[in-house]
Amino acid sequence: MAPEALTPSGPKPLDELEQRVGIGLAFAAGAAFVYLSGGVLLLLVVGIALASLLLAASLKRHRVGTAMAAFVTTFGPWGFAFVFGIAYAAFAFWLVARARRGQTAGTTATPAGGERASGASARSRGRAAPRPRSPRR
């Protein structure tokens, strides 16, 4: 069993679109880091390591790992082309926003009347029912 299946309250795995974007950005980062390294071995190694980390997290469909790897790739060895890192920060924030929206969508929905569908009273849910107010004289 996958770890995500054992923890239903944990973050959901990447869907197909998010995984494809992550894989595409990982290959784009790898190619850009090879081109922009300028023959400096340290920059090449760091860039390939960041791209590989993003690729591995995307292939495993691990949402938190992919978001973290994308955000770290933002600060990779881009050199003069640092503006390309903005796409990786945007991808990381997009993943977090979609995860947040998915978590809150199921917990805040109530019917139009404001009462839960089960019909349980306020006392049975652990809250005290409001006392009726007496009219002032």
Question: What would a concise description of this structure say?
Answer:
It contains 5 helices and no strands. The chain is mainly α and 137 residues long.
Word description of this protein:
This protein has 137 residues and is mainly alpha-helical. The protein has five helices and no strands. Helix 2 packs antiparallel against helix 3 and helix 3 packs antiparallel against helix 4. The longest helix is centred in the N-terminal third of the chain and has 21 residues. The chain starts with a helix and ends in a 32-residue tail after the last helix. The relative contact order is 0.11.
- Mean of the pLDDT scores? 82
Through-space gap between termini = 67 Å
| Radius of gyration over all CA atoms, rounded | 24 Å
Measured by DSSP, the beta-strand proportion falls in under 5%
| Overall geometric form | elongated
Order of helices and strands: HHHHH
Number of strands: 0
Number of helices: 5
How would you classify the helix and strand content by structural class? mainly alpha
Give helix % range. Answer: 55-70%
Poorly predicted ranges: 107-111
